[in-house]
Amino acid sequence: MSGTLILASQSFSRRAMLDAAGVSYVARPAHVDEGAVKQALLDEGQPPRAIADALAELKALKIAQAEPDALVIGSDSVVSVAGQLFDKPVDRDNAAEHLRAFSGQTMLLTSAVVLARDGQAIWRHVGEARLDVWPLSEDFIETYLDAEWPAISGCVGCFRIEGPGVQLFSALHGDYFTILGMPLLPLLGQLRTLGHLLA
């Protein structure tokens, strides 16, 4: 093993994944303007895969440039429904609007992870999952937000799959860790290859 492993995020779910997997790392927020980058990519007509990948790389490079000896993990997730990309809800009313838009639809959740070292991206992986959303009544939405707001305010799809958010879905198609927000198994495999985990 060589150098520090840094997660360029303070995301609870991403930290929880690495913690549960027994990975030693330091979490450090990247403080990047995700909104401006996302909008620029949308204006270019870029698909969700490219947007998630670009945001993950942006986070990883921001920390890697300041920490040249470290291996940095950048990760990001985006949610789209019928081609429309959704941001994190700005308030409870906005979360309710998102849930109404998701109702009865299939949500595409795209999660990307990038490793960077010495200011360069050295590895990347993008995972996709499709989540079938039940038709959601107004009573359900209000009761759900009573229980989950503001805990889901930082969640792009307005849910925590490891909590009551699982009630939103009739079926999940894809990797569980991708749904949580980071394709963990490919990341762990690359960390083994690079010597940051014992093989």
Structure in words:
The chain is an alpha/beta fold and 199 residues long. The chain has one domain: Maf protein (Alpha-Beta Complex). It is built from seven helices and seven strands. Strands 1, 2, 3, 4, 5, 6 and 7 form a seven-stranded mixed β-sheet that branches. Strand 3 (71-81) and strand 4 (84-86) form a beta hairpin. Helix 2 runs antiparallel to helix 3 (48-66) and helix 4 (92-102) crosses helix 5. The radius of gyration is 17 Å and the shape is globular.
Largest sheet: 7 strands, mixed
Quickly name the level 1 CATH class: Alpha Beta
Q: Report the uncertain regions.
A: none
- Element order: H for helix, E for strand: EHEHHEEHEEHEHH
Query: Judging by the overall fold, what is the CATH architecture?
Result: Alpha-Beta Complex
Number of domains: 1
Helix content estimate: 25-40%
Overall 3D form = globular
How would you state the average pLDDT, rounded?
95
Give the DSSP E fraction (strand runs of 2 or more residues): 25-35%
Give a quick rundown of the structure.
The chain has helices at residues 12-20, 34-43, 48-66, 92-102, 138-148, 176-180, 184-193; strands spanning 5-7, 26-27, 71-81, 84-86, 106-117, 120-133, 169-173. The protein has 199 residues and is α/β, with parallel strands linked by helices. It has one domain (5-193): Maf protein (Alpha-Beta Complex), CATH 3.90.950.10.
